[in-house]
Write a structure and sequence with these properties.
There is one protein chain. Among the domains are: about 150 residues, no CATH class; about 170 residues, no CATH class. Strand 10 and strand 11 form a beta hairpin. The N and C termini lie far apart (about 75 Å). Helix 3 runs parallel beside helix 7, helix 4 packs across helix 8 and helix 12 crosses helix 14. With about 525 residues, the chain is of the alpha+beta class. It is elongated, with a radius of gyration of 33 Å. It comes from Mycena sanguinolenta. This is FAD-binding-3 domain-containing protein.
Length: about 525
């Protein structure tokens, strides 16, 4: 009898379902199982079970709204309508048709608002960053969809962003949710969308695929190139809003330089880059950007006191010093040159600290904020000594005002914290002019603002990060960050003219204060 041959490499039996009964059966976009521990008496982990319930509830609500529309009550027969003798029936048909017409108009209006808003974000067609801007607009749409579970379900039926945005058969509820998600997209999501586009495709990071593109869970941490600040200021035309996403002082300086060189004219609320003094543009270009410029009283106030002091009436003079606080980037070698120039200037009192844990350096032992002196006559005040017992001095805590503020509860401490105090004569405008002259004469060694702009802008232009528009007529100018002709941008983006010109509510995009970044 022949013996049964045995397999030298026996295969393990296929795993049974019972072996994975306690592992979550949910699949991600790549088809990989979650494999997390399931809830009791459930096939899903707590997270996916909650998401399943949300999807089911939204699905039921959507179909309930569709089924509630009285489609059956619409008469589609012209003969039946003409032959109907019941006024109430005709009124019911008319009311239903009118309701459907209004919903259709509402849907068309929302589509035009949405498409006009996205066209407004486009760069000029001759810009080499035009296609990159389009990719970032699509990334913003993905981010907006990613924030809404119902939109995520709808997005699974489309291959890319344009397929979704050109589908005129979408339900009005979906279009309205999509419009609100894009309209109310916060600046943190816009920065994340730019990071999605600019980060290396082969780099690390978890992501999900939405409409054919990647939405990453965490930021890459790479520094934005100079031109990238043009993308974010195109979508958020508010300096204070964009500054909220800056994570380092270098980013604050780069953002401000882009805004000044590009002449965007961003709106300014609590944080400003253009203070109303001659020379403020020099300070912004050089990276000396105060959080605020306070309004100070007159330098000196003289008053006569009718009380008896030492037996006779006397005159008092109260003097105040003016102060400017700013944080300079540690990576810029010009920061050290500027600080040393200020320390050598006899007309300035300086307090400086390098970094949050650095040593505090002062040009004088005590920096006064207010001081007083008195004399028996007004003329005697000029030669009278200042009374040290009645002087007010700045404490070291004033350096906190130098740290660049990005929003109410966050400041950037890793910088050159510089406090400049002027106890001389002149107005605040004279003080700002004095500081700007130090930057021009002692640091960059140029004659005026035009030469300073040339000194700073030429390397950026040569690197290709700042585009120059060499027009056929007139002088060469920095290329605009946005397409000024919205109609032309609309036709180029969507391939047709708009059905009607609509207001895309660009000035009503943020209903209330902007929240902080999500943790």
């Amino acid at each position: 009898m022949p013996k049964n041959k045995t397999n030298p490499n026996p295969q393990a039996p296929a795993p049974s379902i019972d072996e994975f009964a306690d592992l979550c059966a949910a699949l991600d976009a790549s088809g990989r199982a979650c494999n997390a521990k399931t809830k009791e008496d459930s096939r899903w982990c707590p997270h996916h079970d909650e998401e399943r319930i949300k999807l089911y509830i939204n699905y039921k609500a959507h179909h309930t709204a569709l089924n509630a529309f009285p489609e059956h009550s619409i008469c589609h027969s012209v003969g039946a309508i003409k032959g109907c003798t019941s006024l109430e029936t005709i009124r019911a048909w008319n009311k239903t048709l009118l309701q459907k017409y209004q919903l259709l108009n509402r849907c068309n209006l929302l589509w035009e608002k949405l498409r006009t808003r996205l066209a407004r974000y486009c760069a000029p067609a001759k810009s080499k960053f035009y296609n990159e801007r389009i990719a970032i607009i699509h990334a913003c749409v993905r981010r907006a969809i990613y924030t809404d579970t119902k939109l995520l379900v709808v997005a699974q039926n489309y291959k890319n962003v344009m397929a979704l945005l050109t589908d005129n058969t979408l339900d009005v509820q979906i279009v309205e949710k999509l419009w609100n998600a894009i309209r109310l997209l916060y600046v943190y999501e816009v920065r994340a969308a730019i990071d999605d586009v600019l980060r290396p495709k082969d780099g690390p990071g978890e992501y999900v695929t939405v409409l054919g593109g990647r939405v990453y869970k965490d930021p890459s941490g790479i520094s934005f190139p100079f031109h990238a600040w043009g993308h974010i200021t195109a979508l958020f035309q508010c300096y204070s809003c964009v500054r909220r996403v800056c994570t380092t002082v270098d980013e604050v300086v780069t953002l401000t330089r882009f805004v000044v060189l590009n002449m965007n004219g961003l709106s300014q609320s609590n944080l400003k880059y253009d203070i109303p003094y001659d020379g403020s543009k020099v300070l912004s270009l050089c990276g000396f950007i105060p959080n605020s410029v306070d309004t100070f009283p007159p330098r000196s106030v003289v008053s006569k006191c009718n009380c008896v002091y030492n037996g006779v009436p006397h005159w008092e003079e109260t003097a105040v010093s003016y102060v400017l606080c700013a944080g300079l980037p540690l990576t810029d070698p010009q920061s050290s040159v500027f600080v040393n120039a200020c320390l050598r200037d006899p007309s300035l009192m300086v307090i400086v600290r390098k970094g949050a844990a650095g040593c505090i350096i002062k040009s004088v032992e005590r920096v006064w904020a207010e001081r007083m002196r008195h004399a028996n006559t007004r003329a005697g005040l000029k030669t009278a000594e200042w009374d040290p017992a009645r002087a007010v001095y700045y404490q070291d805590s004033v350096l906190e005002e130098a740290c660049p503020r990005v929003y109410d509860t966050k400041v950037l401490e890793d910088c050159f914290q510089v406090v400049l105090v002027d106890g001389g004569q002149g107005t605040m405008a004279d003080f700002v002019k004095k500081i700007s002259d130090i930057w021009l004469d002692k640091v960059y060694k140029v004659a005026d603002t035009i030469q300073l702009i040339t000194e700073i802008a030429i390397p950026i232009v040569k690197s290709g990060e700042l585009e120059i528009d060499y027009g056929k007529r007139g002088p060469a100018l920095v290329m605009a960050n946005l397409e000024t002709d919205v109609l032309k941008a609309y036709k180029r983006l969507w391939g047709r003219a708009p059905v009607e010109l609509v207001d895309d509510d660009i000035f009503q995009r943020i209903p209330g204060p902007i929240p902080g970044p999500k943790k």
